[in-house]
Inverse folding.
């Protein structure tokens, strides 16, 4: 997409999309991107921290990335190892029944 701000303004999956990740550079030199991913065909609305999509983007761009992912800005760090393997890291939380991911992410990042 054209800019991180354009991605932030999305209110849902771009029309006609499925298994769709949108992304834009925040800082190309630093390898920082803004990304969001949806997969409604498998019952997944927006994935707030899609590691598999981040790894595919890393292989496509063939460089280490810091991916700011989802509506709430989960941070995923990736690094290509070879043409098929990617190292992935970041923070994760477990959702308790009745809890929203936003409250858990807020605890980590705010």
């Amino acid at each position: 997409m054209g800019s991180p701000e354009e991605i932030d303004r999305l209110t849902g999956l771009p029309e006609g999309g499925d298994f769709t990740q949108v992304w834009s550079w925040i800082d190309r030199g630093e390898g920082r991107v803004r990304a969001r991913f949806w997969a409604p065909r498998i019952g997944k609305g927006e994935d707030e921290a899609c590691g598999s999509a981040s790894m595919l983007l890393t292989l496509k761009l063939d460089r280490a990335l810091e991916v700011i992912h989802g509506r709430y800005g989960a941070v995923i760090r990736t690094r290509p190892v070879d043409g098929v393997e990617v190292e992935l890291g970041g923070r994760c939380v477990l959702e308790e029944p009745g809890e929203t991911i936003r409250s858990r992410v807020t605890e980590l990042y705010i």
Q: What stands out?
A: The domain at 4-109 is CATH 3.10.310.10 (Diaminopimelate Epimerase; Chain A, domain 1). The radius of gyration is 14 Å.
